[in-house]
Amino acid sequence: MRDCELISCRLRRVEPLCRLPGSALQQLAMCGFYEDLEKGVTLFRAGEQGRYWYAVLGGQLEVRYHGAEAKDSKQIHSFYPLPVTTFLQNDN
């Protein structure tokens, strides 16, 4: 199954997204790729330019803050289990 088909199939199972027309889900799916990640993989780091959006369809997402010193590292938030995690920002 191609990524596009797999993604749109998985997105249809997410409660807020299942209300979207099939064409909208297809467009979202065409802009992305499906990836199973191993535990401990870093998706992005503070200060990196945001180029992607992520739909976490299963498992756990942890947000961490790393200070200048290793001892300053702390967990800010842990999301588990969630069907999808979306972060929106309004600059207005």
From TrEMBL:
User: InterPro entries, from UniProt?
Assistant: cNMP-bd_dom (IPR000595), cNMP-bd_dom_sf (IPR018490), RmlC-like_jellyroll (IPR014710)
Domain named Cyclic nucleotide-binding: residues: 34-63
From the Swiss-Prot or TrEMBL record, give the protein name: AAEL010329-PA
Q: Which Gene3D superfamilies match?
A: Jelly Rolls
Q: Which domain of life is it from?
A: Eukaryota
